[in-house]
Amino acid sequence: MNALPASVECRSILADGSPLLVTATRRPRAGRADVKCSAPGDAALAQRMQQVVRLARLTEPCLDSRDQVVISLDRAPAGTQRGWELAVVLADRMVRGLFHPSRPICANGWSDEWHLGRVTGHDLRNAPANVLLGGPDGLAHLGALTGQPDQSAAVATGSCWFPLHSGGINDSLCRIDVSVYPFPHDGAEEEGAIAVPGVDAARQLAVRHALAQARHFDGRGVGRWRTVVRFDQAGFSGESYELALVLADRIARGREFLARGRLIASGCSSAWHAGRVDTVEGLAPKCALIVREAAPGDRVLLPKAWQPMLPDGFADELRSRGASVACIERIGII
Fold it and tell me: Which residue range(s) make up the domain with 24?
């Protein structure tokens, strides 16, 4: 058995023809984040690198959280170039022993569906013959690196929305997507099999804990999935997203009925392992936002404690818009 490399390099050629070097190193995790990324003078790019890596890991054939992978670029690409994404994903797989190229790799590719293992395209025209290109005319999916089939059909995604109230014109419904991929593992590693790219460490821990606890309520929900959670807005506080998160996960795993439209929910819990739904703050502004944004077919789920305090005419107004509402005290087939 070959020892894993301590570090690897993967090169890329950007759209303007300039070279880029990606370096990935591996070290004992020791309680640190699973992935750490850096780009000279560009913290936002480093965060995007980390997001790409975590999304692309969803359909991998193994799960090993003992090491931390540190990935860096030798310079920050100009503008909105994304061709570096494939090189970062390959470097991450190479340093963990999941991809063993027979020659030095130079790659250009990007994707809007990394969580499905798909590579959407590349940024190069008249690329040199030795460059691995992403997309339909090159590497269309990551499984092809090792002769495996496209795994995208095995990924199921559930979506749910929650009212995001900040007291201003930016109030909106925030979407949560939970994608799951069948992957039997030790139930003790449940939280480690859940990735939440694009949010801070505290939010990652909260999301992982809520999902792991809610899956315990299912009885057989633990130790069966790798999971990626995505928020369309990351800058929010509070715990009122938790009910929407849990419901999106249940939809992805086939444990919840689908609404004709969107499922909109607000609630949290200190006992998800018991399936209990607790109350949250902001009843009046959140109800006003929900009424304003409701569309035909939407289903609204709120904490049971809100029921006697709902604004007058709230349910009737939703009904007139083709939506419906229920106040619940537990999760389940609703």
Answer: 7-152
Strands 225-231, 194-195: pairing kind: parallel
Query: How far is Cα 157 from Cα 216, in angstroms, rounded to an integer?
Result: 20
Q: What is the dihedral of CA 77, 80, 83, 87, to 10 degrees?
A: 50
> CB-hemisphere CA count at 13 Å for 232?
12
The pTM assigned to this predicted structure is: 0.90
> How is residue 217 written in tokens?
């309520």
86-103 pLDDT per residue, tens: 999 999 999 999 999 999
Collapsed DSSP state (helix, strand, coil) of residue 37: strand
Tokens found for residue 91: 């470097």
- How many Å apart are CA 180 and CA 216, to the nearest integer? 16
Contacts of residue 316, defined as CB under 8 A and 6 or more positions apart, other chains included, come to none
The enclosing domain of 60 has a CATH number of: 3.30.230
Same domain? For 30 and 168 the reply is: no
**DSSP secondary structure letter of residue 64:** -
Structure tokens, 255: 């444990």
By CB neighbour count within 10 A (0-12 exposed, 13-18 middle, 19+ buried), where does 30 fall?
Answer: exposed
